[in-house]
Amino acid sequence: MVLLFPVCFTYYIQPTPLAKHASCLIALFLMVVIGDCLNLHLSSQVSAMGNCLSLSSSANALSISKKNKASLPIDNIFKLPSPLPTWPPGNGFASGVINLGGLQVRQISSFNKVWATQEGGPDNLGATFFEPSNVPQGFFMLGSYSQANNQTFFGRVLVAKDDSGGALKKPLNYTLVWSSESSKIKQDGNGYIWLPTPPDGYKAVGHVVTSSPNKPSPDQIRCVRSDLTDQCEAHTWTWGPGKEKDDNGFNVYSLRPSIRGIQSQAMGVSVGSFLAQIGGVTSPLSNIACLKNAKSNLSSMPNVKQIEALLHTYSPWVYFHSDEIFLPSSVDWFFGNGALLYKKGEESKPAPIEPTGSNLPQGGSNDGAYWLDLPVDEGAKERVKKGDLGNSQVYVHIKPMLGATFTDMAIWVFYPFNGPAKAKVELVNIPLGKIGEHVGDWEHVTLRVSNFNGELQRVYFSEHSGGTWVGAPELEFQNGNKPVAYASLNGHAFYSKPGLVLQGSKGIGIRNDSEKSNLVMDTGLSYSVVSADYMGSAVVEPPWLNYCREWGPKLSYDLAEEIKKVEKLLPGPLKSAFDKFIRGLPSEVLGEEGPTGPKMKNSWTGDEV
C-alpha cells in the first residue's frame, strides 16, 4: 500500500501552541514509525509554509513504498579524483587504439545494462551484466562484461576491428550455458548467458548475455582467428547463485591470460569479458580464449617523457608508523655509510662497497658465496639500521604487461634493516625478540596503467612473501591521483588501508600495524628508473641491480630458544598452537636471512600473482 501525505517539520526550537503545528508533529510521527519503508521521489522544488517545509514531488507529495531498493556500490561510477593530464607525445601510448598484429582493439568504458541479480556472489549482493555501448564504427563487441555488485562500477572491455581481413567472423550459432529461469534469486527479470559457436579456425573470447530466451543475433558479437588468441584462465569469482562459490554449480569468473610477464611467449591480452561455467574449472580453458599480441608489438609502451609524466601523476605516498625507527634509505646511502661485502671463506676481510655497487659480483645465482652486512662498528651499525628518510630514493622497474596493453611500474623501496616482529595471541600482544629481524629489506608497490589512455587501473601492495592487487576504486588518493600506501611497523609490508592486519588465523598471528603519521614519503620526489628492457639503451641498469646474492647475512639466533622465551609468557593451551604457527612461517618473515634484490623476485619477469 502506498500512502501519500505532505511532510512538514519544525525548523526551530521555541514553545508554540500544539495545535499550530499538529500537522507537522503527526507527519514526523509517521516518518519515525514507517522508517526504512520510505522511498523518496523528490523534485528540486522546496517551498516554505509557515513554520514548516514542504518537500514537493511531481504529485506535490512524498511517496512511501516497501519496494524501496537500497543503493549498491555498483550504482556509483568510479572516476579518478583528478582529470587525466595530456600525456607527452610519442609512439602509440594513450592513443586509444592498440594494434595486436592484424587486429586493432579499443577499450570501451560505456555500457548498457542487460540483466542483474540482487543476491548471490561476493557479500551476497549479486552481480550486473552489461554489453558495451557507443562502439566506434568498424569495431565489434567481443564479449559482455560482468561485475559483482559489491564494487564501485569500473567496467572496461575491448572491442576489435579487423585490420588484415579474416581476423574476425560471426559465430555460427550459440549454446545456452545457463539461464536464471529456475533460480529462486532476487533478479531483474530473467538472464540468459550464451557461448558463441565459432567457425573452424576461430575462437570465442567472450559470452553474450540477454534478457530474452531467444538466441542472440550472429551480428552481435565476433569470434577471433585462432592465431590471434591465447590461452586464458579463470581468475576471480564474480558471481554464483549462492553466497559462496560452488564448484559443482554455476559460477562466473573474470578472465586473464594463463602466461603473464615480459617473456616472449607472454603476449596474452585480457578482453575484459568473463567465463560462465557449470561445474569445476580446468586450466587452460578450452571453450574460451584471450586475445594475443601476435607480433609482440610494443609501440603502445610509454617513452621516457611519458614515464616521467606517469610518475608525476601516480607516484604513491607512503606512510610509516609513528613508532617506526627502521626507515628506508637510498642504496648509495647504505653503501656510502659503511655497508660491507662478505665472501665465503674470507669472512675476516669484508670489503667496502662502491656507491653504485660496481665492485659487487654480477650475475650468477644465490649460491651463498657472497652477502652484505652492516658496518662492524657498533655505533655506525645502529645508525645505519635506522636508515635515512631524508636521503631515501625509490627505484622503478617499467615493464609491458598483458600483451603491452598495460604498463606495470614497480616502485621498489629499500630499508637497511627489518625490525623484530610482534605477535598477537588471543588478547595478548607479545614482542618476539629477534624473530623477524634481518639486514636489508626490499618492498614494492606496482602501478598498473592502461596503455589505451594512461589511466591507473590497479595497484599491487607487496606483503612479506606475498601481496594483494587493489582496484583503483578501492584505493585512497592524495594530492590528485596519487595512491596512498601504508608500511607496517618494523616489517614494512605495504597495505592500502591503515590499521591492524593479522598474519595468521584463529586469533594467533604476526601483527602488521600501520597508520597515517608525520613520517611520510612522496615517492615522486626522488626516484630512479633502473630498468625498462623494452627501451634498450635509454635506461642503464646500475650494477647493484644485478647482484644476485643476499642483502644481509644469515642470522645465527636459535629459533627454538626465541620461541621458548615467548612461550613462557603464554598460558598452557596456547603454547603448542603458537609454536606450530611460528614454525610454519616463511624464512622471510622469520628473518633468518637477508633477502635477495628486486631482480631475483619472480615478479621481475612475471606477473605479481
UniProtKB/TrEMBL annotation:
Residues 590-609 are annotated as: Disordered. InterPro entries: Vps62. This is Vacuolar protein sorting-associated protein 62.
